[in-house]
Specification:
Layout lengths: L9 H18 L1 H24 L3 E2 L2 E2 L3 H66 L1 H11 L3 H32 L1 H42 L4 H11 L6 H16 L4 H26 L7 H36 L4 H7 L10
Antiparallel strand pairs: 1-2
Helix pairs in contact: 2-3, 2-5, 2-6, 2-10, 3-4, 3-5, 5-6, 6-7, 6-9, 6-10, 7-8, 8-9, 10-11
Subcellular location: Membrane
InterPro entries: AI-2E-like
Main location: membrane
Length: about 350
């Protein structure tokens, strides 16, 4: 007679596992943040490699190691370009900060005639609580360690690219070993396809929004045009509120930088209109349907990851939640989680 082993119920696993995972994310945040960014860049590079393999240059296909090498070079250049532009923009912001403070004071004086003294005092108190000057100095000091961080991020990314072939072989071995391994291999492939599709569509549309923003901001003469465009690309990965965050910062810069209101109107109307066109027309065409994730879940994930990992957590929040949702939708025992995370309870299956 075979002895039966006691199996812990699912609710017990959740009660024990969730605090452990949160503690791991918190205490290991310095390591895990860079790993998470490197993994998302790797997913995006993989999607780019898959599409590059379908392209012919001078009648020759770019596939295999050539596609992976070209994708790796392009993304490494992009990583360092992003770091250089952000570094230069931070120095420019610090140099321009006193000028913007004076201009902001003039705007508050003009605003006093409209909203009264108490209204202006409330705005000043809110600005003091934000400690903008301290934030800018923190940004400047943080640049000292950015080179090492970018180098480490690049190293992680290179190793992930180099290991891609080995992981493909491991999944193939899973398929040939036993039925359970075959099921796991299918789940991994479907989840990978779903994650790559999400990252590719969002990266493409966010890049287009950032390019349009850069052209508009340069035409207007807006300060920090390159940095603002990069900011728009980054927040493009945040559904629903990303568009609001993206247009808020350039609008504030336009309001403070210029005496006239027409640059502000140009930012809102020209860039804002183009961004809405991309979000509401182009993105659904590329995705087939909009991201089926609950707005409440998106908000909670933003708060959760921001509390754990700061500003970088806000950028990673939705992509990481999408990864959880896609994997859960492919695992029968976890489909309940995917249904809870979805907006309408309907889960897409990748076949």
């Amino acid at each position: 007679m075979k002895s039966q082993q006691a199996v812990a119920p699912d609710w017990f696993k959740i009660i024990v596992g969730v605090p452990f995972i949160i503690a791991l994310l918190w205490f290991g945040r310095d390591l895990l943040k860079l790993l998470a960014v490197a993994f998302l860049i790797f997913v995006l590079a993989t999607a780019f490699t898959d599409r590059l393999a379908k392209v012919s240059i001078f009648g020759k296909s770019v596939s295999g190691w050539k596609a992976r090498f070209l994708a790796a070079v392009i993304f490494i250049i992009a990583i360092w370009l992003f770091a250089l532009v952000s570094s230069a923009a931070a120095e420019e912001i610090i140099d321009s900060f006193p000028k913007f403070q004076v201009r902001l004071g003039e705007l508050l004086v003009s605003l006093e005639a409209i909203i009264g003294v108490r209204g202006v005092e409330a705005i000043e108190q809110a600005a003091d609580k934000l400690q903008v000057g301290t934030l800018v100095m923190f940004l400047a000091n943080g640049l000292l360690g950015s080179v090492a961080q970018v180098a480490l991020l690049t190293l992680y990314f290179v190793f992930l690219i180099a290991e891609r072939t080995n992981w493909t072989k491991k999944i193939a071995l899973l398929s040939s070993s036993d039925p359970e391994g075959a099921d796991l291999a299918v789940i991994l492939r479907r989840a990978a396809d779903g994650i790559k599709d999400y990252m590719w569509v969002n990266a493409t549309t966010s890049l287009l929004s950032g390019a349009v923003a850069y052209v508009v901001f340069r035409a207007i003469g807006l300060d920090f045009a390159a940095f603002l465009a990069i900011n728009i690309f980054v927040v493009g990965f945040i559904p629903n509120i990303g568009a609001f965050i993206g247009i808020l910062l350039p609008s504030l810069v336009a309001l403070v930088q210029f005496d006239s209101l027409w640059p502000l109107a140009a930012v809102i109307v020209i860039y804002g209109g183009a961004d809405q066109l991309i979000s509401n027309v182009l993105t659904p065409m590329m995705q087939g349907r909009s991201l089926n994730m609950s707005t409440f879940v998106i908000t909670v994930s933003l708060v959760f990851w921001s509390l754990l990992w700061g500003g970088l957590g806000a950028f990673l929040a939705v992509p990481l939640t999408v990864i959880v949702m896609v994997i859960a939708s492919e695992v029968p025992n976890l489909r309940w989680l995917a249904i809870l995370l979805s907006r309408d309870g309907e889960i897409d299956e990748h076949h």
